[in-house]
Design brief:
By secondary structure, the chain is of the alpha+beta class. It has a domain of 84 residues. It contains three helices and six strands. Strands 1-2 form a two-stranded antiparallel sheet. Strands 3-4 form a two-stranded antiparallel ribbon. A two-stranded antiparallel sheet has the order 5-6. β1 and β2 form a beta hairpin. The two termini are 27 Å apart.
Length: 145
């Protein structure tokens, strides 16, 4: 369930019956028709994500479910596509990575925290031994249980 965030790449949303560039839509989000299309696209992705999580949560694995032993992320690299801001990013991390991730809360990171800190934290949880990733400044504080 990946989608390109490149500038002009149109994507066919069969379930929504239109082909649009998600990136392009975000530049005109003050228009009502565009806001409606963006809401439909966002809802489409979140509903797919929820379906995946429900399926993972229905599969027994050890003393929990496959979701309990997983770490799945949904989000965007932009907080506001119109202005290309990278603040207040809408990111969801689901699953507890076998109890290593704190779940059931909203993590508000300090301003200017690089998204790469999340990717670094997840890579470290997977045992990579990485100390840096892209523009990371360290592991994401508050993510781990």
């Amino acid at each position: 369930m990946l989608a390109p965030e490149r500038w002009g790449t149109p994507q066919r949303f069969h379930e929504l019956n239109f082909t649009k560039s998600h990136h392009g839509l975000t530049h005109s989000q003050d228009r009502q028709d565009v806001k409606k299309a963006l809401t439909q696209v966002d809802r489409f992705y979140v509903e797919l994500f929820a379906e995946v999580l429900e399926q993972l949560d229905s599969i027994k694995e050890g003393e929990g479910t496959l979701l309990d032993h997983s770490m799945i992320t949904l989000g965007s690299g932009l907080g506001d596509g119109k202005y290309h801001t990278m603040d207040e990013l809408p990111i969801i991390v689901a699953g507890s990575a076998n109890g290593r991730i704190k779940t059931g809360h909203i993590l508000n990171c300090p301003e200017k925290t690089p998204l790469a800190n999340l990717w670094l934290s997840q890579a470290q949880l997977m045992g990579t031994g990485m100390e840096r990733f892209a523009d990371s400044t360290g592991p994401l504080k508050g993510l781990l249980a």
